[in-house]
TrEMBL record:
<protein>
    <recommendedName>
        <fullName>Tyrosine recombinase XerA</fullName>
    </recommendedName>
</protein>
<feature type="active site">
    <location>
        <position position="194"/>
    </location>
</feature>
<keyword id="KW-0229">DNA integration</keyword>
<keyword id="KW-0238">DNA-binding</keyword>
<dbReference type="GO" id="GO:0005737">
    <property type="term" value="C:cytoplasm"/>
</dbReference>
<dbReference type="InterPro" id="IPR011010">
    <property type="entry name" value="DNA_brk_join_enz"/>
</dbReference>
<dbReference type="InterPro" id="IPR044068">
    <property type="entry name" value="CB"/>
</dbReference>
<feature type="active site">
    <location>
        <position position="218"/>
    </location>
</feature>
<dbReference type="Pfam" id="PF00589">
    <property type="entry name" value="Phage_integrase"/>
</dbReference>
<feature type="domain" description="Core-binding (CB)">
    <location>
        <begin position="45"/>
        <end position="131"/>
    </location>
</feature>
<dbReference type="GO" id="GO:0009037">
    <property type="term" value="F:tyrosine-based site-specific recombinase activity"/>
</dbReference>
<dbReference type="InterPro" id="IPR013762">
    <property type="entry name" value="Integrase-like_cat_sf"/>
</dbReference>
<dbReference type="GO" id="GO:0006313">
    <property type="term" value="P:DNA transposition"/>
</dbReference>
<dbReference type="InterPro" id="IPR033686">
    <property type="entry name" value="XerA"/>
</dbReference>
<feature type="active site">
    <location>
        <position position="283"/>
    </location>
</feature>
<feature type="active site">
    <location>
        <position position="286"/>
    </location>
</feature>
<comment type="function">
    <text>Site-specific tyrosine recombinase, which acts by catalyzing the cutting and rejoining of the recombining DNA molecules.</text>
</comment>
Amino acid sequence: MCVNKMDEYSEINQIKTSKKWFDPPNNDLPAYDANGEMISILEIHDFPDMIEEYLIELDIRNYSQNTIKTYRSIIKNFHEYLLSDKELYDERRFLRSFKKYIQYLKRDRSVSQNYIYLVTVVSKKFLEFNGLYFLDEVKAPKRTKSLPKSLNETEVKQLINAFDHELYCENNFKTKTRLRNKLVLTLLYSSGLRVSELVSLITNDIDLEERTMRIRGKGDKDRVVLFDIDSNILLEEYLSSRESASDYLFVNRLDNPLTTRYIQVMIKNYAEKAGINKRVTPHILRHSFATHLLKNGVDIRAIQQLLGHSNLSTTQIYTSVDMGTLKSVYDKARM
């Protein structure tokens, strides 16, 4: 499943730590057993239990399941690395072990700078949540702000209309499937939905007259998004032909909600059918939506609201405008 990283970064700072300037340092280390032997930090603190407690807290705070899955992987991988250190007795050795882990990730695993950033921030937040401040002096490295790729307007049309010549056929099930899939693509682009939001859509949340949908986004935050006239026409046709009793808008032949994985594979197939030689994902359609709005003069704060971003900086990363558009806006703004 595609995981959207920028959305993960925006959730990182939701967990606040309680450490104040007057908190005592971790001065009870090293610890010794009855024989005077130093005890490993991993024997003093139950890391598996601490990990589960932290993940439960993230879930309570409405972190997305994708984010929790990523955090679980990061923390457990770090814990497994720590298990190989037989001299993990105090804060200084713990800090050294963490730095060696980062070195291992960069040299042996060749991970990206953004992943190093994520490992650093998540590890610190996890430890601080459990009252351990071993990594206080560690500064998170700068992230590289690589822009996601987008489709141009022509490519979007080709993608959505890829199977139009097979849309209506004698096979009624295939016709309904093609219509459903075309609507999925249309809404992902015209409304800028996250794929997780799309598969959770309820029919009662759609207002055809107002051309709006109520979306339950990240952190269980509701927002209202718009859809265009083409989407409205498709929705009316889809709903009139729909025989499912499910509350979910998009279901499969077993009347179960579509999965994000199904939509990812479906989009890939449609892109191949349309002859688009680019990687196309639900997130790229969402990014294309934002980029095209910005290119056509929509204020970035309006785009932020439509996308459901809590921070404007996230919207700015998602949107890229070609130099020609920038020059045009610049020239029009000159006195």
